[in-house]
Every structure is written in C-alpha cells, then in structure tokens.
C-alpha cells in the first residue's frame, strides 16, 4: 500500500485515518465509512458465512452475507444467532465473516473504528466479541466500543454527537434482545436487556398465527415470517395480504392473512412497553431519581430494526405514556436499523480528528 500520499475517501490528500463505524448484529451487520463524496456509506449485510471448496484449486473459500444465505441455505452459519459469539468455533466464524466483509468493502487498516456493542449479561460472549474486534485488521489508528443503544441514539437526537452531552433514555429493538438504558453524558446508567421481547419472537408468533388463520393448511418458515413482518407490518395502516404456497401433492394454495402479522406485532409492542415501564424504569428511579426525572422530560430514542415498522415510534409513545400515566416523547432516527453504525461513525470521525 502506498502510505505517504494516500488520498482519503473525500479525495483530499490527508494523513487522517478513515473513520469507520461497525455494528455486528445477530441478523444484520452494518458497516459505515466515507462514501468518497463527502457523505457516509452504510453497508448492510446478513451476518452469515458459508464455506465451500474451490472447484479448480480445492482451496476452502468463504462466501458471506446475502449471497451465502441465497446460495447455501443448507449450510450457511449465522454465528451471532444469539447476539454474541457463544464459543470458540463461532468466534472463529465471526472473525472470518468480518474479515471477508472488510475486504469486500476495502476498509483500510489505517482507520479509527468505533464498534456498537450490545448490552448483554454474557461475559464469555462479550469476551469472544472483543477478541474478534481486537484481532481484526482494521483500527490501526484507534479502536473504541460504545453501547449499541447509545450509538443508535446519536442520530436520533441530533446532527452531530449532541446525545453524548445529554441525560436521556434509549431503547434498542433488535432481533434477539430488547435493550434499554439511561445515559448521562455518555455514561450508561442501569443497563437493562431482555431476551424475551424480540423481533425473533414476533417471527415465531407469525408462523403460529399463519397456521391458525389457515386452519393448519399453511406452514411458513421463519424467514418468510420475517419477510411478512418487514413488508406488511404497519401500526398506521395495516392491510390484509395474500400469498401462495405450493402444495405437497402438486397445485398451489392461495391464502390471505388478516390479523396474523399485526397480532404478533401488537403483542411485541405491549411486551416492550411493559418491560420498559415496569422492569427497567423502576430500577432506574430507585437508583437515580433525579436523572430519571430529567431523562423522562427529554425525548426517548427508539432504535433498532424493529423500530423500522411504520407507526412503531408513535404507538410506543402512546402506549408508554398511557402505562406511565404521564406524557413522554419518543423519537427515532430516519433509519433505525442503521442508526447504531451511523452513531458509531460519528464518534469515529471525532476520534479520527475530523
Ligand atoms: N425495515 C424493517 N422493517 C421491519 N422490521 C425490520 C426491518 N429491518 C429489520 N427489521 C427487524 O428488526 C430486527 C433486527 O433488528 P437489528 O438489525 O437492530 O438487530 P440486530 O442488531 O441484528 O440484532 P440484535 O441486536 O438482537 O443482535 C429483526 O427482527 C428484523 O426482522
Ligand atoms: Mg442489535
């Protein structure tokens, strides 16, 4: 690599390292870096890897993301399925996945990297994730980790990194956990996370609801359920939709889903509001009464993929206000599923001296 006169991605001759944001998620990983036109590129990739043997050389090769999922559905590995790399084998797969993703995107070694890390009570998993991060080829100019819900709140609460100077609440709605925290000037107070209110639970419920609504005639898999949720879930204007399945004995069967998707989402939202109002907030009030009052007077940042569902933010605000018997405001960034990596990128820009 020619190190001296590297033009950086903005086309300016510079010795400044490239700022990079990373969110390694159980379903999707998001990588953010300068797009070369003064903006930021966000690369979304399914967090999965498939290996195969090169037909000519016999070498083992790896394929990652959407292509791995589409071409090798039989053996693709989602190594962060539970949110963190559970064991050495999955840590090694995560390491390989991340290297493939970085090299496909040409992320330079001379970079300042900020990782958005989930809040979970799983020390071994967190240690494994730290190993993956520390052994990665990027971040020669600096590496830091911040909680995922803090990173996600940054684009929800301003155009810069204003959130880091405030006292506020953040809730992140992921596929394997629901995370809530209070932040006081970047410091995480009373981190809370639960694995019982998740995007994956919604998918499982949709599978069961579809079976019930079709009197047992239609059984969809979890991927299809997730697609139904992502395409048709809507708290503002949900419409019944139809789909067709091939039947084992030949022929096809068309069916309509009236309530199956929205019922699952209503369960999710009520459970999320209940966890925040009746589990997380009482603990916070107990330990930090004044910051609790200050934070509730500010908008709550709602992020994560599940916050992409149209109307989720407004409905969360309405139901949480009702549950707490006081008006609270809830805001989401424009792209809640990319927000953690975007926020991480903004912190990385500061670290890189921009
Ligand atoms: N555009 C969308 N519309 C609806 N739901 C979405 C959308 N994008 C993602 N989701 C859902 O959000 C969840 C994934 O959220 P996110 O990407 O924040 O999770 P993750 O970080 O990969 O998971 P975790 O935080 O549990 O490790 C999944 O259940 C997914 O189906
Ligand atoms: Mg996440």
UniProtKB/TrEMBL annotation:
Residue segments, region Disordered: 1-25
Stretches with biased composition (Acidic residues): 1-16
One Pfam family matching this protein: Salactin
InterPro entries: ATPase_NBD (IPR043129), Salactin (IPR057331)
PANTHER family to which the protein is assigned, alphabetical: CELL SHAPE-DETERMINING PROTEIN MREB (PTHR42749:SF1)
Protein name: Uncharacterized protein
Native species: Halorarum salinum
């Amino acid at each position: 690599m020619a190190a001296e006169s590297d033009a950086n991605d903005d086309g300016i001759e510079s010795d400044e390292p490239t700022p990079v944001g990373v969110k390694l998620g159980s379903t999707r990983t998001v990588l953010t870096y300068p797009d070369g036109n003064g903006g930021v590129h966000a690369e979304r990739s399914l967090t999965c890897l498939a290996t195969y043997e090169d037909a000519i050389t016999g070498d083992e090769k790896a394929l990652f993301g959407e292509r791995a999922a589409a071409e090798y559905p039989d053996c693709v590995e989602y190594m962060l399925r539970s949110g963190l790399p559970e064991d050495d084998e999955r840590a090694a797969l995560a390491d390989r996945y991340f290297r493939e993703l970085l090299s496909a995107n040409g992320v330079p070694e001379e970079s300042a990297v900020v990782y958005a890390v989930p809040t979970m009570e799983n020390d071994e998993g967190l240690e494994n994730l730290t190993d993956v991060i520390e052994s990665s080829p990027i971040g020669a100019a600096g590496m830091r980790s911040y909680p995922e819900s803090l990173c996600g709140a940054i684009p929800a609460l301003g155009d810069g990194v204003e959130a880091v100077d405030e006292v506020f609440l953040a809730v992140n709605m992921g596929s394997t956990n629901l995370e809530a925290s209070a932040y006081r000037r970047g410091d995480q107070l009373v981190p809370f996370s639960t694995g019982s209110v998740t995007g994956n639970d919604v998918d499982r419920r949709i599978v069961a609801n579809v079976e019930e609504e079709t009197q047992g005639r239609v059984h969809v898999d979890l991927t299809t359920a997730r697609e139904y949720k992502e395409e048709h879930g809507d708290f503002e204007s949900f419409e019944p939709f139809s789909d067709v399945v091939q039947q084992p004995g030949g022929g096809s069967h068309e069916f309509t889903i009236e309530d199956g998707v929205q019922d699952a989402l209503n369960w999710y939202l009520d459970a999320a509001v209940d966890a925040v109002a009746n589990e997380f907030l009482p603990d916070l009030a107990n330990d930090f009464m004044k910051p609790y009052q200050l934070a509730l007077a500010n908008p709550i940042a709602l992020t994560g993929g599940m916050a992409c569902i149209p109307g989720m933010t407004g409905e969360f605000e309405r139901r949480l206000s009702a549950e707490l018997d006081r008006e609270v405001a809830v805001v989401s960034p424009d792209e809640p599923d990319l927000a953690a990596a975007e926020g991480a990128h903004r912190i990385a820009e500061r670290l890189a001296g921009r």
